[in-house]
Write a structure and sequence with these properties.
It is a single chain. This protein is an alpha/beta fold and 291 residues long. 40% of the residues lie in helices and 13% in strands. It has eight helices and seven strands. A seven-stranded parallel beta sheet has the order 3-2-1-4-5-6-7, with helices on both faces. Helix 5 links the parallel strand 4 and strand 5. Helix 5 packs parallel to helix 6. The chain is globular, with a radius of gyration of 19 Å. The structure holds (2E)-Hexenoyl-CoA (TC6) and NADPH dihydro-nicotinamide-adenine-dinucleotide phosphate (NDP). (2E)-Hexenoyl-CoA binds next to helix 5.
Length: 291
């Protein structure tokens, strides 16, 4: 039996908002299910009764979640896959089909970016982030939807984006990609409605997952003050909303985005890179020099 971490114990004991058994008999794929929000989502879905398949690039993270699931007697498939690789996605879906049959739910959670000022982002870096967050998410959506359409049945997709309504200073590439996902979600929600496919986005604000460690210390120190709640979210908060969107509870909801950001879209000042002097409290307008 694998060691139980404090983290896993919390995932076991944190209260569920939805009725246990709600997802009995369902199969869910969670991309990026080896860490952070995706791992919490895998736990919530399993505790609600779903069989879970997780993917990501790093096999060790997936294996750790697999061991924890095995220890609890929960069905799981852990399959390494880069969501930018169409052939890899087909292999993932074949593996899910062989183990569990056609999935019912896709949680498109894998993603991320690096923080850099917009004027400095290299073309390769821009492409890496767009390929991951827009194209990768799209390839997963389309591959699963095709199998549902070919199989004559519907399903549910939840795309995890990021709260981008006011732009995202320091991660322009990711903001553009997430806005693209939210738009293609609206389009596909219409096109695929006749097939019984529902698609929604969940746009988190700052969530205290391990993922935030990639940001500069000065930026991280301000994250918890960047919304009216003056707090970061927790992966469990986000995972519960993911499960809500994946369940029949939301059967009349499609093509929309739920933002879970502590009100950050309304108030707060978020910088993922060092805050430019222009936006500091001490900045005086006279400091602007026009040539
Ligand atoms: C408000 C915040 C809200 C959001 C929070 C979260 O999402 S938390 C979740 C957070 N979790 C995550 O973000 C996890 C997932 N994120 C990732 O895996 C990476 O950030 C990825 C999306 C770039 C993909 O990775 P990959 O393996 O495909 O890419 P690669 O490593 O091979 O780089 C390709 C190119 O990108 C460029 N470049 C890359 N890094 C930097 C940098 N620091 N600096 C500058 N540039 C950088 C560079 O051009 C590089 O090419 P080079 O110069 O090397 O020839
Ligand atoms: N935490 C936050 O404040 C916020 C997070 N988000 C988004 O929520 C999602 C989950 O992030 P979070 O849990 O916080 O951070 P993590 O860094 O823990 O999660 C990102 C996950 O995505 C996987 N991943 C990244 N790139 C790929 C790829 N090309 N193919 C397959 N898997 C990939 C990673 O696994 P591996 O490295 O093994 O591939 C990892 O499991 C991400 O899309 C993130 O951008 C959005 C807004 C705020």
């Amino acid at each position: 039996m694998s060691a139980r971490t404090v983290d896993d114990l919390r995932l076991d004991d944190a209260p569920l908002a939805l009725a246990s058994g709600l997802l009995d008999g369902r199969t869910a794929i969670v991309s990026g299910g080896g860490s952070g929000i995706g791992k919490a989502a895998a736990w919530v879905l399993a505790r609600l009764g779903a069989r879970v398949a997780i993917c990501g690039r790093n096999p060790e993270r997936l294996e750790a979640v697999q061991s924890a699931f095995d220890a609890r007697g929960w069905p799981i498939l852990a399959h390494p896959c880069d969501i930018r690789d169409e052939a890899g996605i087909e292999r993932l879906l074949d593996a899910v089909a062989a183990r569990f049959g056609l999935p019912d739910i896709l949680i498109n959670n894998a993603g991320g970016q690096f923080a850099q000022g917009a004027s400095q982002i290299a073309p390769k870096g821009w492409r890496a982030v767009i390929e991951t967050n827009l194209t990768g998410c799209w390839l997963m959506m389309q591959a699963v939807a095709r199998r549902w359409i070919d199989g004559g049945r519907g399903g549910v997709i939840v795309n995890v984006t990021a709260a981008n309504g006011r732009g995202m200073p320091g991660i322009a590439h990711s903001a553009a990609a997430r806005a693209g996902v939210e738009n293609v979600t609206r389009t596909a929600a219409v096109e695929w409605a006749p097939h019984g496919i529902r698609i929604n986005c969940l746009a988190p604000g700052l969530v205290d997952s391990g993922g935030l460690s990639v940001y500069p210390e000065a930026a991280r120190a301000a994250f918890a003050r960047a919304n009216p709640q003056r707090a970061t979210g927790d992966p469990w908060d986000i995972a519960q909303i993911i499960a809500f969107l994946a369940s029949d509870t939301t059967r009349f909801l499609t093509g929309t985005t739920i933002t879970a950001d502590g009100g950050g879209a309304l108030w707060g000042d978020l910088w993922t890179i060092e805050r430019p002097v222009y936006f500091s409290d001490s900045f005086q307008k006279a400091e602007i020099h026009v040539a």
